[in-house]
Amino acid sequence: MNAEAVQRAVQRIAHEVLERARAEGSLERLAFVGIRRGGVPLAERIRAEIGKATGAPPPLGTLDIALYRDDLSQRGAAPVVGPTDVRFPLEGRTIVLADDVLYTGRTIRAALDELVDFGRPRRVWLAVLVDRGGRELPIAADFAGVRLEVPEGDDVQVRWRENGAAEDSVVVREGRKP
Amino acid sequence: MIGRHRHLIALEGLSREEILQVLDLAVSMKEVLSRPVKKVPSLRGKNVVNLFFETSTRTRSSFEIAAKVLSADSLNWTAAQSSTTKGETLLDTAKNLEAMRPDVLVVRHSASGAPNFLARHVGCSVVSAGDGAHEHPSQGLLDCFTLRERFGSLEGRTVAIVGDISHSRVARSDLHSLPKLGAKVRLCGPPTMIPQGIERLGATVHHDLRTAVEGVDAVIMLRIQHERIGDPLIPNTREYSKFWGLNARKAADWLKEDAVILHPGPINRGVELSSDVADGPRSVILDQVQNGVAVRMAILYLLAGGAGDDRAEKVSA
Amino acid sequence: MSNPKDVIVIQGGRVIDPASGIDGIRTVLLREGKVAAVAERVDVPAGARVVDARGRWVTPGFIDLHVHLREPGQEYKESVATGTRAAVAGGFTAVCAMPNTVPANDNTSVTELMLARAAAAGLARVYPIGAVTKGRKGEELAEYGELKAAGCVALSDDGSPVMSSALMRRALEYSRAFGLPIAVHEEDLHLVGKGVMNEGAAATRLGLKGVPAQAEDVMVLRDLSLLELTGGRLHLCHVSTAGSVRALREARRRGLPVTAEVTPHHLALTDEDVARSDYDPDFKMNPPLRTAEDVKALQEGLADGTIDAIATDHAPHSPEEKKLEFDAALNGVLGLETAFPVCLDLVRQGLLTERRLVEALTVGAARCFGLPGGTLAVGSPADVAVLDPTLAWVVDPMRGFSKSRNTPWKGRTLTGRCTHAFVGGRLVHEAGVAP
Hints:
heterotrimer, A: 5-stranded parallel β-sheet, 7 strands, C: 2 domains
């Protein structure tokens, strides 16, 4: 996916979120939480689109799930922990949890665990730029920019300008076959 | 792992980058402590054993809270000093504890080098919670963290450490960390409390409190232990307090406006520090306590998080 | 007359015998327990045992003035048999046994037991040292006359300095009646306090309590001062400080009857080695390892003869006494099997001549206590060491002859080793051959 395709996908997700929030009457109580680091630009951009449409961008937080991972004992070294920043109360809110790629579902599981430790949202929607299949947990995206079937072992990389890329893109790289 | 190290026994061998690795992570850990639910699951299923041969409510509680916030199981093993001299050697105790398969052994001991000894004989990570007059690495790190939080960077700052430097493991850990972060250190105390050769660790030595604290950004006041009196390092606490204790008047007259006061605790009020200073606006002593938990969380996370080398091999095999 | 098998010919080696001024390729003939000839050409008697010593040194057997054999009372650490086995493996054909046994060697029955055990072992000669005070308690004089009659060659309360200056004065005075030297472990116990290593930058970094060099210096100065009053013979054990060397040099210049020894570890290691060892109690001994400046002074003192002898202070301890926190571990390290290569290293560094090294291990030591041996002069006891100065070996404490393993040299490669030791003309050690 090139920058233009990424932009279109973000706009489509924003549109779908807006419609669904309006339909359910939760637009006022919408908030975004991006999962570091790839989910944060997605959350920021959807939020900006919605802000353009409504005039008031919803609150935005970031989650770093390193402390909630379930694979610590299988890794050689402890993963780097980045900042988590959720400054608004979650009670009664509809949270749009955003990540760049949905794969096994374990990151989302960890993020949900972390999110509920900050409070009790009314509901949580999941928005991802790429759903690549290969789920290991019963988790599904409510909004997906693109759905791909990528073989296990291959690597789907979302490169955001915000995280240092020259321009936005999604790249599938062949990895080591298991 | 903290950089190249699987134990945290002394800051002497830690590089600037390794110290910053802990301090930066402690910033994230401190955020966890401000959450509504002060618990994260990262060390679930890990065992932390607190092996304390010296009584220490503060440090032990701090490590215990740090372990609990990270969801590790922690066990406190408080061995009276006398029980080891009665027959069970440190090695026996260590072997017994090792049978419980801890991931991290936090040890406090009155003998300098006891954590080094344990690290040679057990398979898990060893964290020193203070050994003799050697080092107290987590205290040194939390002092750095507290000063960094206050000043942003320690580059170009000056810190005075005042008290019984001879017997202070805190002073040694501070001396092995603050200069690596760019701070200059001055040491101050009566000559009987300044050990031979300490200036080789990169500090200046002063015997006059005023010259030691004038112009500094922070003063770390050390606890004067009552058993040192008649050792004989000082004649009595009254005279010590008069010449090396800090009170509000001296602080106002001698210290820079924004200079802060640290103390590793517990304070001998009226000896090294008067209450009006300990509880006054310059004091960051309570910040140190909270920062201690964050720093110890970072230490435990880095050492218990991730599989030990041997276990990592077993998983991949 | 004599069995030809008792005749030993050591051929082709470099004979270094400072006592008789020989340094050159010679053949040494041992017969009937005595040195029968040292010459460039010796006819090999039929049936004689011939030792090929080409490329090796042939020296008088070493004499160690300071060994802890631990028997009686602490045979779990060492015994007369194992200690003397370690001795001959290191080239020492005679050792002086310190009296801090259990009970202390302050009476003839202990002295006699040591000598009986030594005779039974049939290895190195053992010269017992009697206690200065009863029970080494620093309170009452021991029976010097009886001790000498039983075989003691000197007096010492090693490890427990006589803190009372008045008692020390009487000990020096009384010892004159029997011509026994008093070997002193110089340490002011008040200055030592709870110290466990040399006071200085290394101890400060390690947070270990320090023992200042002055703890030794003040006692050396005290005893040299008393010696002027009393006469007698004073021997300074294991000097470890530049201050001791300075005081000793001055005392000798003034002709005081004082001698001194230094250990291989004090000549080769410093307090920074304690730091590098990461609190390894095998680097803990008393006196402690000092600074580089002290080591330099000791090396110079040994080289110029201010210090007479090298003595090991061989101090075996069990793992239960050593595998502990540094503070809790006992003082002392092994020395007999590593002394020669460790000191030979000083020669390689140009700090000591070969002649002076051999002198300090042989006749220099013998003179301190007036012992026989230490020379290859014809007619002397046939106590001989054959040494390979180029043989490199790795110190494996599990393979040493001592019962104990507390050596700071473990795992290190040392160069130089005793290949044969003869006591009274009998081969008591041959490297690589099971005893």
